[in-house]
């Protein structure tokens, strides 16, 4: 096996030296080797891809739909996405030049940040949150500025934002993820509007990662683009709403002038998403079958959420009840102190349940664990039994 020439190693991208190992995947990988482990770690739906989406992909293959698509995605899919955004959130985007289909929302994050970051630029990130935002910002030579929202029930308030802007007046962008990974918390329309009013007075580019927007349990999802479309890039996709994680279909929507560099960077990175996956996404975003499939999944997630929240509260976990996504961000019982990594490690080894330490999600996460309930009710029942035995054994 070849070894890298030593003289090359000190000539690599210096920004990679700033990165720490990926905590979520690494912890999940280590826990996976424990015999009998129940994993409540990753944010991947346990549902199969709905039949209409699978058939659309099959039809695409059988129709020899195997050629390069336009960089921004097929027009059929961009039209379906435009329909989806208008139907669900009353947002109007031109499918010709205001929507780009990406290889998952992950690529959308990279393309969006690449379009706005110059070396040294500061990007504000409301935390606890998905750590990839900070990682990509660093790779691109930017500086993430974490905004701890834990004192405000994990909601970024206009007051908190203004206090950060006073210290970082030249910040280039703001990343919002709601419903949130890891907290499951989302914003009411009034909260979104108040925050948008504060942002309107700035030149911040808002990257609104709304990949969980279809999984809001009580009340509608309100996109911040409803109030400040001229400075917002909306990220979304089919992975969470339609259980299509492996199909890798996401999208970015925003104003034409802002989308030009985003789309160009996207096309240079991946050329285009695959034709069969895009065909499946047309059925997800553009048909009644796609909408109905999401509603069925959401109802199942809500039942799971209610069960797990009640079970954990009885065991001494402090929880802000999530109103979206499929995560619970639970403050570990007081007798375990504030070391979430030790708690999660001991729970995995002794209780045979794997959860993710909250400190992996940035400022405000210490002392918490993230629990994914994107798995069957039977699995969740056994997991709660195991956690109860672990807690009671430690008392």
UniProtKB/TrEMBL annotation:
<dbReference type="InterPro" id="IPR015422">
    <property type="entry name" value="PyrdxlP-dep_Trfase_small"/>
</dbReference>
<keyword id="KW-0808">Transferase</keyword>
<keyword id="KW-0032">Aminotransferase</keyword>
<dbReference type="GO" id="GO:0006520">
    <property type="term" value="P:amino acid metabolic process"/>
</dbReference>
<protein>
    <recommendedName>
        <fullName>Aminotransferase</fullName>
        <ecNumber>2.6.1.-</ecNumber>
    </recommendedName>
</protein>
<dbReference type="InterPro" id="IPR004838">
    <property type="entry name" value="NHTrfase_class1_PyrdxlP-BS"/>
</dbReference>
<dbReference type="InterPro" id="IPR015424">
    <property type="entry name" value="PyrdxlP-dep_Trfase"/>
</dbReference>
<keyword id="KW-0663">Pyridoxal phosphate</keyword>
<comment type="similarity">
    <text>Belongs to the class-I pyridoxal-phosphate-dependent aminotransferase family.</text>
</comment>
<dbReference type="InterPro" id="IPR015421">
    <property type="entry name" value="PyrdxlP-dep_Trfase_major"/>
</dbReference>
<dbReference type="Pfam" id="PF00155">
    <property type="entry name" value="Aminotran_1_2"/>
</dbReference>
<feature type="domain" description="Aminotransferase class I/classII large">
    <location>
        <begin position="37"/>
        <end position="386"/>
    </location>
</feature>
<dbReference type="GO" id="GO:0030170">
    <property type="term" value="F:pyridoxal phosphate binding"/>
</dbReference>
<dbReference type="InterPro" id="IPR050596">
    <property type="entry name" value="AspAT/PAT-like"/>
</dbReference>
<dbReference type="InterPro" id="IPR004839">
    <property type="entry name" value="Aminotransferase_I/II_large"/>
</dbReference>
<dbReference type="GO" id="GO:0008483">
    <property type="term" value="F:transaminase activity"/>
</dbReference>
